[in-house]
Design brief:
The structure is a single chain. With 108 residues, this protein is mostly helical. Helices cover 70% and strands 0% of the residues. The protein is built from five helices and no strands. It has helices at 3-20, 24-28, 37-52, 66-81, 86-106.
Amino acid sequence: MTTAAAELETEVRRLRIRIISLTTAQLDEAAPPAPSRRAVIREALAEFSWIGSDARPVPELGDQNLADQVVVLLEHGLRSARTLPEPDRENRISTLTEAAVRLRRNLA
């Protein structure tokens, strides 16, 4: 496993824990520029899908599934990156990691 892939897996674990720990009230709280943390997560889901899943639509499954959706999309992006040539693989993993870090910071 590359260092970049390990960093992404670390961010996946951090995000999962962070999102699971959010209450409904915390999800409702504003996270500028988005109207709520929930909206920030949904925007990130769309971005993860765009980066690693050919921009497939992400269904709205409810608050209890947000962490799972984040994990699934990031892990899928990592798996799909492994099929790419080296420079593209590292670029995709780096882009996903940057997006994951941005989401985690926006949820703080």
